[in-house]
Amino acid sequence: MPASDLVPRLAELPDVPRLNALIHDSARVLSQGYYSDNQIEAAVRYVFGVDTTLVRDRTYYAVESGDEFVACGGWSRRGALYGGDQRRMEEAPLVDPARDAARIRAFFVAPAWARRGLGRKLLAVCRAAAESEGFRALELMATLPGVPLYTACGFTPVEEVVERLPNGVELSFVRMRREL
């Protein structure tokens, strides 16, 4: 089926193990050339994964082709910018749409489906949902492989961030923002 025919649906809690498998596969393949193998494995272990708060909040989406997940991503009305369940520090508080940006979270595409418009499709769904709740801006913490997509979709860099993961590996991100 062509990527243009695929429709994002809200993710459900039983989807989480398969979505995490997609995320890890995507990170391991599509991060090559941006991060070292050591950085990729540290990110998979400590950062990249589904945040089930987003699933429970009904703001995380999955894209399927047949019985295979080919993309996922979401948005949040909470303060956390990134990180899956394995990185949870505490429950992120709700933000105020009148003054704060909605968060774009955890976008990943299966390597075989990369660069076919699925990321843009997910962004459009997330943007519409955030706008419908009164948000006037979007913010995200981009991985280095994600920066080109977000730049092409109107996001601008706010700051470069280097995080030291629990095993001592440093990982670079770019915080980005887009007004709506």
Task: Considering the chains and any ligands shown, give keywords for the structure.
180 residues; alpha+beta; Aminopeptidase; seven-stranded mixed sheet; 5 helices; 7 strands; 28% helix
Structure description:
By secondary structure, the protein is α+β, with helices and mostly antiparallel strands. It has one domain: Gcn5-related N-acetyltransferase (GNAT) (Aminopeptidase, 3-Layer(aba) Sandwich). The protein contains 5 helices and 7 strands; from the N terminus they run βαααβββαβαββ. The protein has helices at 16-30, 37-46, 52-56, 118-132, 147-152; strands spanning 9-10, 60-65, 68-76, 102-109, 137-143, 156-164, 170-179. It has a 7-stranded mixed beta sheet. α1 runs antiparallel to α2. The radius of gyration is 15 Å and the shape is globular. The model has no long low-confidence stretch (mean pLDDT 94).
* H-E order: EHHHEEEHEHEE
Low-confidence runs (pLDDT<50, min 5 residues)? Answer: none
Please report the distance between the alpha carbons of the first and last residues. 32 Å
Give the strand order, joined by hyphens, for the main sheet: 1-2-3-4-5-7-6
Radius of gyration: 15 Å
CATH topology: Aminopeptidase
Total tally of structural domains: 1
Number of strands: 7
Mean pLDDT: 94
Instruction: Please state roughly what percent of the residues sit in beta strands, choosing from under 5%, 5-15%, 15-25%, 25-35%, 35-45% or over 45%.
Output: 25-35%
- At CATH level 2, the architecture is 3-Layer(aba) Sandwich
Percent helix among the residues? Answer: 25-40%
Main sheet attributes: strand count, strand direction, barrel closure = 7 strands, mixed
